[in-house]
Every structure is written in structure tokens, then in C-alpha cells.
Amino acid sequence: MLPFSEALKKILEHCHALAVTSLPLNKLNGSVTAEATRTLFPLPRFDNSAVDGYGVKTADLTKASETAPITLKVIGEIAAGQSADLELAQSGEAIRIFTGASVPKSVDAVVMREFCRESDGSVSVESAIVHGANIRCRGAEFAQGVEVIKAHTRITPPIVGLLATLGHAEFLVHKKPRVSLVITGDELIAPGLPLANSEIYDSNSFALEAALNDLGIDECKKFYARDSREQTREAFAQALSESDVVISSGGVSVGDKDYVKEILEELDVETIFWRIAMKPGKPVFFGTFKKAGSNHKGLAFGLPGNPVSVLVTYHQLVKPALLRLMGLEEMTNKDQIMVLKGMLRKKVGRLDFVRAKTQVNSNGVISAIPSSKQDSHMMTGLANADCLVHFEQEAEELQDGAKITSTPINWHG
Ligand code: AMP
Ligand code: MG
Fold first, then answer.
1. Per the domain annotation, does 330 fall within a domain?
2. Residue 24 lies inside a defined structural domain of this protein
3. How many angstroms separate the alpha carbon of residue 233 from the centre of ligand 2?
4. Which of these, 240, 250, 258, lies nearest to 281 by C-alpha position?
5. pLDDT tens for residues 7-52?
6. Does 34 share its domain with 64?
7. Which has the least CB within 10 A, 121, 207, 290, 388?
8. Residues 232, 312: one domain?
9. Which ligand is nearest to the CA of 283?
10. Which atom of ligand 1 is nearest to 251's Cα?
């Protein structure tokens, strides 16, 4: 069986960033930039005040102290958004100035309002001040023409803010994939409806949809198929015809009613692999299919039906692929070294992703405490976990206190 790391490598080899599109600022969060951007002007663009206070010449205040305050004449004020055409004409003068307001050339420091007392058009200052204090200088953050955002950057709220600061009303990003879910199973009933004897509620379609939403993929199509060749074929045929990525749940193992692999192959999906040496998630299928009007192929993932398996395989294999299609080049599942609390035992042959909760001790050491509910149908074990401990393929035992690799669970990126 294919080791997990090779399966992930094979998947990523088939991922190409989707075409680009321009989106307005309020739609950019979560997308990935398709171009770099440079500062179109220096940041800050003009000298401005960092505080509410008084613009002064430092030379006037060299002798100021609590016992001998110096009084300056207030000759006017400059508020944020006003131009700085008022200047200190001679020594002994001050200008009332507000945070973000343009600082005139003749001012070489701004004294915070908290250290001044103003009355009758004069201000008394109780301490000296250094040259440049409380002035945010033009170009202090970046000069004009410097690259401040690279291509292939995931857009976060500060990046939206930075793009707006630079004056972009819209920006070029990669399109998000069109994703379809194919949910298989005779036993499934929609939540909210009554259950008969051996029926269960369909949870996978909602969990996967939520995971896609968390990634910034706001919509997905859902197709349901009973466990018959005809219905499975019909659902996949439609899903494949209108998607960049098709993700199915269930029916991908070796049971008599598991039609996913065979139907996908019938529908010209090229099998890249089927079955991985991982737990949960052994029966995962991955293939590619031709998309109309594109040089790049679509991706088909046949995920297992067990609710924990579907989400763990999504997190470890599908999410990295979706992010690549969205234009991201770096891996966002950033494995960490942690210390295991408790002992683990398993058979050799599969990499076990053990659901665990982290704890940070007073020295900053991160421990991972495995959940007591490790079976792949036990959703509480995953719901209460925040990391997946790697119990390596060929290992049989992990001792309490062992150093282990672990993937933090992160649905967003
Ligand atoms: P399968 O992979 O189809 O053999 O399904 C494995 C297990 O997952 C079975 O116990 C199914 O009942 C369960 N299962 C399959 N699909 C879903 C679903 N959409 N929601 C919840 N459980 C499911
Ligand atoms: Mg099934």
C-alpha cells in the first residue's frame, strides 16, 4: 500500500493553480494573490503625527522641566485630513496637532497632549523632547516601489487592509475551485427527518461542506446516490461535468456495494492511486479527469464513509490540494514536534493519525494527549481534538513522553 507521504506527493503533482480573476476588496479575504504588488507611494505618504499633541521646535524646550515649564504660544491647529500649510514662524510657538494629521516642515517633534497644559492660547510644557518624537516619517515603513505582497499569498484581513491602504479597489487572485460532493449510502437520511431501524443521519455532506466553507469555498454542489451502479454513475457523471474537484463519501472500499472506484473508471477518471497505508482512511481513491475548456485536469477524491475518516483524509490530503488550486504554493499543514502523554500501541503497516488534544506546560513544551475515542466512527474523538499525532507506519509502540510529530488541525488553511 502507498505510504501517506507518497500519496500526498502524487496528489500535489497533479495540482495546478486555477485561472485568475479580479475581485473587489470585500471579496478578497481567503483568496490567493495572482500577482505581486509594490508600494505605489511611500508608506507613510507624508510626515504625520502619531499622537494628539503640540507640534514644536525641540530647541525651544531644551530647558523645560516639571519645576520650570516652558510656555509656547499656540498659533493654530491641524487636524487629520487637513493640509499642513501652517508653519512655526519663530521660536516660542506651537501648533495643536491631532493623530494622523500632516506635520509641517517647521515642526521637528510633537509633544503628547498628556504632558501639556493649554490655557488662553498658550501651552506649557514640562519636559524636553527629542528630535523627531511622535512623528511618523514619510517612507519610514516602505519607500515607493518596494514589493510588499508577493504572488501566491493567502489574503488575510491585514492583507485586505494593506491592499486598501495602497489604493487597490480590486486585486488579481486565483479562482476558487468548483467543488461537488457525491454522498453515497443506502442507509443515509437527512437530519431532521425521522429515522427507521437501521438508518443513520448523513453527517458527511454537512461536515465536508463546512470544511470547504472554512477554506473560503463558499458553495459546493451535492449529489446523493443510493448504493446502486446506476445512481452512483448518474451522480458522478453530473459532478464530473461541472466541477474542478469531486469529493465523494463512502462506497470506495471492497464491499459488494462499493461502486465508487469502478464507476469513476468507467467515467474515464484516470486512477492515480487507490488505498493508502494510513489510518483512518485506507480506501482513499485519487484520480484525474479531463475538464472541458481547460488544459489542466480535474481531481476526483473518493473518501471513505466513516465520519472521522472522511474529515481526517480531507484535512491531510484534500485541503492541501484545494489550496494549491487556489494558488497557494506553501504547505499550510505545518507539522510540529510534541511530547506524547500516555502510551500508544498498534500493528505495523499503516501511519495512524491519532486524534489528540494539546496542552502547553509552563516551559512552553507542547504535549499531545490522545483522545479516548479513536474509532473512525467516533466523531467526538475528532471533535474534541486539535491535532493529529503521527504514529508512524512501521512503529508498533510509542512510550509516554516520546517525541512525536503532529499536525495541528486547522480547517481554515
Ligand atoms: P462505507 O465507506 O460506505 O462503507 O461507509 C463506512 C461507514 O460510514 C458506514 O458505517 C456508513 O454507514 C458510514 N457513512 C457513510 N456515509 C456516511 C455519511 N454521509 N454520514 C455518516 N455516516 C456515513
Ligand atoms: Mg456505503
1. no
2. no
3. 15
4. 250
5. 999 999 999 999 999 999 999 999 999 999 999 999 999 999 999 9
6. no
7. 121
8. yes
9. 1
10. 3
Whether 181 and 315 share a structural domain: yes
In short, whether 307's Cβ falls inside 6 Å of ligand 1 is: yes
Q: Would you say the CB of residue 187 lies under 6 angstroms from ligand 1?
A: yes
- Specify the pTM: 0.94
Instruction: Report if residue 331 sits inside a domain.
Output: no
Q: Whose CA is nearest to atom 6 of ligand 1?
A: 305
Same-domain status, 306 and 383:
no
- From start to end of 98-244, where are the E strands? 109-112, 116-119, 122-125, 135-136, 147-149, 170-174, 179-184, 188-189, 200-201, 220-225
Mean pLDDT computed over every residue of the chain: 97
284 CA distance to ligand 2 middle (Å): 13
- Sequence length of the chain is 413
Local confidence band at 84 (pLDDT 50, 70, 90 cut-offs): confident
Query: 239 and 368 share a domain?
Result: no
Question: In which domain, by residue range, is 161 found?
Answer: 29-42+144-174
Instruction: Write out the three cell numbers for 124.
Output: 506649557
**What cell numbers appear for 159 in the block?**
492583507
**Bridge partners for 390 per DSSP:** 353
